[in-house]
Amino acid sequence: MTRPSEDNGSPRAPGAGERPSLPDALYEAGLPVDMLTDEQRLVLSELTEEELAVLLDIKGRLDAVEPEVQAHGEIAGGALF
Amino acid sequence: MNAPGPSSSARLRVTLRLLDAELLGAMEHMWRPDGLLPRYRRYLCAMHAVVRASVPLMRRALERAVLLDVCGDPLAGPLAAYLREHIQEEEGHDAWLLEDVLAAGSLPGEALGPMPPPVVAALAGSQYYWVEHHHPVALLGYIAVLEGYAPAADLTSRIAAATGLPDAALRTVREHAALDTGHLDELYALLDRLPLTRGQESDVTISAMHSLDALTRLFVRLGRSAAAPLPRGAGPSTPTGVTT
């Protein structure tokens, strides 16, 4: 995972044609931020403080999920409302 | 003039996509053919615990939305209209599950009797809290996750092939595979036309992330190989005499 050198830990508004910078915490959590589209980066750069905190909290918990349940590309679903 | 930013529904999808690999993996693991029949029976019981909260949750959210509408909340009218329609669409699905339970060789009491596990309470119960004590719009995050990770189109045939169960035991999965794509489109359209403030959009996102987290933990639990339940009192005892 490579982090942009200009990133000082706080997201800032991108200039024209510039990719939005992302909070350090997203890199540190191991999220695949280098593989994101510009739209995805824009959404993540605009997360509120609470959204970011909840996302990182859940990501940390889900990373502890047993290795045998990691996805292999097939989508089975199964949630019911 | 700047191009418009991502819509509310696009922002929600992007955020959930960052977190859903474990849920998709847990679902896939849960549906593995080996030993699926007892897991499917447990799944039906667990889903009954979830689904029996769906209509009551929406009814309470509707009551709250109607009250907020009177106070001039601009979200409340369209939210109430959506909930009224969706309540009708979801009515009776808990009864389908009990019929499936019976056709799959279990007794309805196995779904109705035991206290639902804490992870189900965390999943559905949090919504009662947010609807009651914050804003009913939070429920849309819950619905987005449950309808967004609905059964895939081929899941019914996979279950039938692995378990030998008849169609009568698969109705709820079959119907939701067909229904929920349209439901999800309706929900995203609602999110994009509601006059959400950034804070209210965040309420929906946080509710959705929490729902995805709890749903993942539920599917991890359901995917574990079934252990024969111990008769009451037959487990090893702790020094305090409590059966574990």
TrEMBL record, chain A:
Region (Disordered): 1-24
NCBIfam families: aroma_sacti_dom (NF045560)
Identification of the protein by name: FXSXX-COOH protein
Entries under InterPro entries matching the protein: Aroma_sacti_dom
From TrEMBL, chain B:
Taxonomic source organism: Streptomyces pratensis (strain ATCC 33331 / IAF-45CD)
SUPFAM superfamilies: Heme oxygenase-like
InterPro entries from the UniProt entry: Haem_Oase-like_multi-hlx
Record-given protein name: Iron-containing redox enzyme family protein
Taxonomic classification: Bacteria, Bacillati, Actinomycetota, Actinomycetes, Kitasatosporales
